[in-house]
Amino acid sequence: MCGNMLFCCDWLINICRRKKELKARTVWLGCPEKCEEKYPRNAIKNQKYNFFTFIPGVLYEQFKFFLNLYFLVVSCSQFVPALKIGYLYTYWAPLGFVLAVTMVREAVDEFRRYQRDKEMNSQLYSKLTIRVADLTGHLIGMIFFLTNINMLFPQNQRIPSDMVFLRTSEKTGSCFIRTDQLDGETDWKLKVAVSCTQRLPALGDLFSISAYVYAQKPQLDIHSFEGTFTREDSDPTVHESLSIENTLWASTVVASGTVIGVVIYTGKETRSVMNTSNPKNKVGLLDLELNQLTKALFLALVALSIVMVTLQGFVGPWYRNLFRFLLLFSYIIPISLRVNLDMGKAAYGWMIMKDDNIPGTVVRTSTIPEELGRLVYLLTDKTGTLTQNEMIFKRLHLGTVSYGTDTMDEIQNHIVNSYSQSSAPKVRKTVSSRIHEAVKAIALCHNVTPVYESHAGVTGETEYAEVDQNFSDENRTYQASSPDEVALVQWTESVGLTLVNRDLTSMQLKSPGGQILTYYILQVFPFTSESKRMGIIVRDESTGEITFYMKGADVAMSTIVQYNDWLEEECGNMAREGLRTLVVAKKSLTEEQYQDFENRYNQAKLSIHDRALKVAAVVESLEREMELLCLTGVEDQLQADVRPTLEMLRNAGIKIWMLTGDKLETATCIAKSSHLVSRTQDIHIFRPVISRGEAHLELNAFRRKHDCALVISGDSLEVCLKYYEHEFVELACQCPAVVCCRCSPTQKAHIVKLLQHHTGKRTCAIGDGGNDVSMIQAADCGIGIEGKEGKQASLAADFSITQFKHIGRLLMVHGRNSYKRSAALGQFVMHRGLIISTMQAVFSSVFYFASIPLYQGFLMVGYATIYTMFPVFSLVLDQDVKPEMALLYPELYKDLTKGRSLSFKTFLIWVLISIYQGGILMYGALLLFESEFVHVVAISFTALILTELLMVALTIRTWHWLMVVAEFFSLGCYVASLAFLNEYFDVAFITTVTFLWKVSAITVVSCLPLYILKYLKRKFSPPSYSKLTS
């Protein structure tokens, strides 16, 4: 019977947990009622809780921590009469305060999330419909009308769901969208309307045709889509293949013209929502260390209670006495520890964001500022992080002749001559004709669109128009998905061949003489990370010639072009200069060759299964024996102050690894020019390996090298990690610098996890693009740079900076201060609890091990709050070294990584101080009290408050005016409150001279030896930083 019930319960749980299977779908245009399946609502929900789950959810998140659960049990025990040892509020007030602060913070965050969701979900869009009665349930199949920001709407109008692009107001049948919220890229992307619906005479005809879209099942990949568009009521039936260029994903913005699209995916099935992952909750090393110390304190608490019960002789209900002792000494574990540390972290975050020396810095994860002071490994991206991602054309190589920046005028002269001469056929190609061919190929083979600004907008804002027949040079800008391409087109403009217009079917170039040359675009093969090349087939309007142009990386192009003896060598030479190289080639096609290719290509594009493979195979049939035209070199300039920043980090003992997708030669060159590898260091280039044996030999060769930087490619790294993971990581960690080139985003994250696993040291990842997000989220501390590649990395990071050079101050100054301050604050809060527990232990042992509290009610609450809170918290303003000194001597950072500011050794010293001071305060008060017990409380409590204030003063290394205010304010509060504490103190006694001298004597005995010890330590064993500041 029980077995059946368990089976039923498991079955029910599985039913509840089961995720809905994602399916491909057929979407009829304008007919949502034809959808047989139920699809998700198109609403965004980022909230963690709802009205009913908020309080249980927040309480669970709090009490899963040992510290808070312990205090909940202690507080609840006070409802049991036999265990009650004081007023309820002495336990519930601190716990209630902690929970109230947490709940308010969570409620504010939750309300903000709700407001953001509500704002997004209540945006209005124009829906096309011909029905009077409207179906509100289904969105799939609905047709929406969207416009760019300059025409009707004052704000950016984001696309509400994933759609297929049916129609646009642009004559070209295409429009631009911005995808910054989806992939982090700031460049505009060109999208193409379905030609069948674009050709319809009127907008209303969308409802008069019988057509449907077949869409693949929802998936993660934002860069691919496979589907077909079918119109049934035409003869013959129209079939059109749909790809990524026909889609409008949710969260992108229409940048030009008006757009009409049909909804295919909604809500949780949209690409943007599917790609939203919750990053892991990062916990700082200092928090883990303090958690260990808290557990040690708990063991001490249990041991002390057992000792007291043992000395009592286990008389009576000893287990009840044991629990009462556990409650009496519960202040050993301070509840205020988490509150103080969380407030401290918030203060450090505020200080970082307010630092004028690093403007624009944002702290997105406020829980780990101390991590900035404990880093051993820094993993950095190259493009856009160390370099500016600003491309400048530097070199053109034709095989026999090379042109640099100083000889560009020669190219200009050749171009002018070639267009001014009559085009008589030449038997042998001259240098001039070869230059002309190369420049024309660069001017045609790209995905760049010229955009013209016109200031005649209706709203008075700037408008963008794709076509402006003036083609004036002043207001032309180029839009492309790659800065390399823009640099190439800007260079062809500078030598006389200007791209003036481009649409889906043609592009126009302007010759030096002002003549407009038109080329019809027959096919475009976009660049992908797999193919590493892009191609275009164009037909010259004047001659009718069909030419296939292609450009790409040398590794991809070397097998495609005809045999030559210079390409590989020159690519290496340019890479050594730090230039990004592209190989440009062409192939002339006859009409028959092209028609044959087009038929096969269209057939491959319509296939539903393995479409990408079939299309690639057809294109590869063209990529044979192409004529090599030229090699181009583009420079990516270094970011400001990269060299001194990397040198500072290296001197601080931080090991820097550069992980890049770029080729080996360019990466090596940037490593040298940025001083990632110092001038005196050797570089060991790890040879390409594909088998276990080769990896073994190469690792042995590398083992014999000493103090040299390592350069390795992603493929070789994969082989080494497969067979010799431990050995490779051990060798690589000994290198002063490591460069990994041709790295994929997942490989970058894998390297971070490897270092964490094998070394146990703290890692930091810094990057600026969407491809760095996985590495940033995997690292203990992720830093994002707001760069040309968009904001995706900076939004996913724990800290966001505007320039790479700011990382020096962030680590050396703020990292140091955050760690040192939190270490001092955490230990002092523990000391505050230990000293009062020691006094309680002495008091109980003197009075026959009675489990009676020494201080009750408001005295206990006041001690942890108003009497000592402000001076203790003012430790977050302390600093041991001035910021200028920390930046001048980065070697000081090495000490922090050893974790000496908070360790079992320093903790033990604080425990001994607490035992000494607690003992002196209690025994001193017992020796000096005369007749009444009330005098013991008055003398010992006053001496305790004074001791704590003096100990804060002893701990402080650099005084701040707020620290002085906090000390005197707390002392003033205590003195003022004495008038109201007649329940605990004899007011007549505390105004006498006797009281004052007894308190002063005890306080001096408890604090003076520590002041003397501190003076002697600084005199004979000063810390490293004191030698610099003296």
From TrEMBL:
<keyword id="KW-1278">Translocase</keyword>
<dbReference type="InterPro" id="IPR023214">
    <property type="entry name" value="HAD_sf"/>
</dbReference>
<dbReference type="InterPro" id="IPR023299">
    <property type="entry name" value="ATPase_P-typ_cyto_dom_N"/>
</dbReference>
<dbReference type="GO" id="GO:0005524">
    <property type="term" value="F:ATP binding"/>
</dbReference>
<feature type="transmembrane region" description="Helical">
    <location>
        <begin position="907"/>
        <end position="927"/>
    </location>
</feature>
<protein>
    <recommendedName>
        <fullName>Phospholipid-transporting ATPase</fullName>
        <ecNumber>7.6.2.1</ecNumber>
    </recommendedName>
</protein>
<keyword id="KW-0547">Nucleotide-binding</keyword>
<keyword id="KW-0460">Magnesium</keyword>
<feature type="domain" description="P-type ATPase N-terminal">
    <location>
        <begin position="35"/>
        <end position="92"/>
    </location>
</feature>
<feature type="transmembrane region" description="Helical">
    <location>
        <begin position="296"/>
        <end position="316"/>
    </location>
</feature>
<keyword id="KW-0813">Transport</keyword>
<feature type="binding site">
    <location>
        <position position="485"/>
    </location>
    <ligand>
        <name>ATP</name>
    </ligand>
</feature>
<feature type="transmembrane region" description="Helical">
    <location>
        <begin position="987"/>
        <end position="1013"/>
    </location>
</feature>
<dbReference type="InterPro" id="IPR036412">
    <property type="entry name" value="HAD-like_sf"/>
</dbReference>
<feature type="binding site">
    <location>
        <position position="771"/>
    </location>
    <ligand>
        <name>ATP</name>
    </ligand>
</feature>
<feature type="transmembrane region" description="Helical">
    <location>
        <begin position="933"/>
        <end position="954"/>
    </location>
</feature>
<comment type="similarity">
    <text>Belongs to the cation transport ATPase (P-type) (TC 3.A.3) family. Type IV subfamily.</text>
</comment>
<keyword id="KW-0479">Metal-binding</keyword>
<dbReference type="GO" id="GO:0140326">
    <property type="term" value="F:ATPase-coupled intramembrane lipid transporter activity"/>
</dbReference>
<keyword id="KW-0812">Transmembrane</keyword>
<feature type="binding site">
    <location>
        <position position="660"/>
    </location>
    <ligand>
        <name>ATP</name>
    </ligand>
</feature>
<feature type="binding site">
    <location>
        <position position="381"/>
    </location>
    <ligand>
        <name>ATP</name>
    </ligand>
</feature>
<feature type="binding site">
    <location>
        <position position="383"/>
    </location>
    <ligand>
        <name>ATP</name>
    </ligand>
</feature>
<dbReference type="InterPro" id="IPR006539">
    <property type="entry name" value="P-type_ATPase_IV"/>
</dbReference>
<dbReference type="InterPro" id="IPR018303">
    <property type="entry name" value="ATPase_P-typ_P_site"/>
</dbReference>
<feature type="binding site">
    <location>
        <position position="382"/>
    </location>
    <ligand>
        <name>ATP</name>
    </ligand>
</feature>
<feature type="domain" description="P-type ATPase C-terminal">
    <location>
        <begin position="795"/>
        <end position="1022"/>
    </location>
</feature>
<keyword id="KW-0067">ATP-binding</keyword>
<dbReference type="InterPro" id="IPR032631">
    <property type="entry name" value="P-type_ATPase_N"/>
</dbReference>
<dbReference type="InterPro" id="IPR032630">
    <property type="entry name" value="P_typ_ATPase_c"/>
</dbReference>
<dbReference type="InterPro" id="IPR008250">
    <property type="entry name" value="ATPase_P-typ_transduc_dom_A_sf"/>
</dbReference>
<dbReference type="Pfam" id="PF16212">
    <property type="entry name" value="PhoLip_ATPase_C"/>
</dbReference>
<feature type="transmembrane region" description="Helical">
    <location>
        <begin position="857"/>
        <end position="877"/>
    </location>
</feature>
<feature type="transmembrane region" description="Helical">
    <location>
        <begin position="829"/>
        <end position="851"/>
    </location>
</feature>
<feature type="binding site">
    <location>
        <position position="527"/>
    </location>
    <ligand>
        <name>ATP</name>
    </ligand>
</feature>
<feature type="transmembrane region" description="Helical">
    <location>
        <begin position="322"/>
        <end position="341"/>
    </location>
</feature>
<dbReference type="GO" id="GO:0005802">
    <property type="term" value="C:trans-Golgi network"/>
</dbReference>
<feature type="binding site">
    <location>
        <position position="742"/>
    </location>
    <ligand>
        <name>ATP</name>
    </ligand>
</feature>
<dbReference type="Pfam" id="PF00702">
    <property type="entry name" value="Hydrolase"/>
</dbReference>
<dbReference type="GO" id="GO:0045332">
    <property type="term" value="P:phospholipid translocation"/>
</dbReference>
<feature type="binding site">
    <location>
        <position position="772"/>
    </location>
    <ligand>
        <name>Mg(2+)</name>
    </ligand>
</feature>
<feature type="transmembrane region" description="Helical">
    <location>
        <begin position="128"/>
        <end position="153"/>
    </location>
</feature>
